């Protein structure tokens, strides 16, 4: 009854392909137009639970939509549009399959053995630098980027583990640490550490978890002092907005 008038998943896939054939992906305006058509289709599609997202979309299209969700501001049309796509992907049980390899990162203090590393900027990295990105979206993105054994590293040396610390996702942080993640890992460019991020963004539960796993208080304090000095010169860094319970309930996915 609830699906009356809704397009089937097969029709959805055909519609997406038809729209793809009308654009040139390398042109930003065309990608935006494509995303608008996809959003309309998502709002008019039956429950896609269990269907293969990669049957309907190419990897680059999925990444683009995820990035739009993570980069959007509250007054941006992509704020709701991107979140609807993320929810759609989760319903399809989509998880990221990173292009990763083993390497030793000499910039890390306790990194003597090779680890699985995926280099490149993901939606979670974008979210960490968007002051209007909320914890709910980041938690949803971690349902897609759920390879706790892989170090997703962007050009600043920031990792998904550090993003989890920044947003206070203590269960995600715990999952990383249980697989042997270094609680003192450092972002190569910014110098941020998990504990300094937890302190800086007022995440006491994460800070406690990191300390229980041996995070070095002195290293974190040194980075926190550096951040404070930088803020004196350049102004305070942003603090991510948190949704109230009412806002989370009303959020249009």
Question: Can you tell me about this structure?
Answer:
This protein has 253 residues and is mainly alpha-helical. The chain has helices spanning 9-20, 28-43, 53-56, 59-71, 78-91, 123-128, 135-144, 160-166, 170-178, 194-200, 204-212, 217-234, 245-250, and strands spanning 101-103, 115-119, 150-153. Strands 1-2-3 form a three-stranded mixed sheet, with no helix packed on it. It is elongated and about 60 Å long. The two termini are 21 Å apart.
Quick rundown:
The protein has helices at 9-20, 28-43, 53-56, 59-71, 78-91, 123-128, 135-144, 160-166, 170-178, 194-200, 204-212, 217-234, 245-250, and strands at residues 101-103, 115-119, 150-153. It has 253 residues and is mainly alpha-helical.
* Shape summary: elongated
Q: Low-confidence spans: pLDDT under 50, at least 5 residues?
A: 238-253
CA-atom Rg in angstroms: 20 Å
Instruction: List how many beta strands DSSP finds.
Output: 3
Helix content: 40-55%
Question: What is the overall pLDDT average?
Answer: 87
- Tell me the strand percentage band: under 5%
Biggest sheet, in brief? 3 strands, mixed
* Helix/strand structural class: mainly alpha
Helix and strand element order:
HHHHHEEHHEHHHHHH
Distance between the termini: 21 Å
The number of helical segments is 13
Within the largest sheet, what's the order of strands?
1-2-3
InterPro entries: Ankyrin_rpt, Ankyrin_rpt-contain_sf
